[in-house]
Specification:
118 residues
Length: 118
């Protein structure tokens, strides 16, 4: 297990990132499956909830400048969520085996006692 999990971690993390990117990128199905909810639901497990792409779409199409600004803020939040998830995935999936190999390949350090004896 000490070999399998570290080896599979990078591939699994990549698959998760690609899955999240695909889900976030599929805005058209989200626009149709969000049930057109206009309200903010504080309980995400009960009742309809407006999706972020639908929020952006509705607010940017509005003629009011304040709602357009809200729409662009929603788009910024969506991009920041994707960026944060990507950064976390890169941190989790980084290759730690290179550092271990580099440490084990270094020659052992000489101690002060060995230097004095030589």
């Amino acid at each position: 297990m000490s070999v399998v999990f570290p080896t599979a971690r990078t591939g699994t993390t990549t698959a998760v990132v690609l899955g999240i990117a695909r889900a976030v990128g599929e805005t058209a199905p989200l626009l149709f499956t969000a049930f057109g909810a206009d309200l903010m639901n504080t309980n995400p497990f009960k009742g309809p909830q407006e999706s972020l792409p639908l929020f952006v779409y509705r607010n940017i199409r509005n003629p009011s400048l304040s709602t357009i600004a809200r729409g662009f803020a929603g788009a910024l939040v969506l991009m920041m969520i994707v960026l944060a998830l990507f950064a976390v995935a890169r941190f989790i999936g980084r290759d730690r085996s290179r550092r271990r190999k580099a440490r084990s390949a270094r020659p052992p350090r000489e101690t002060a006692k060995e230097i004095v004896l030589t």
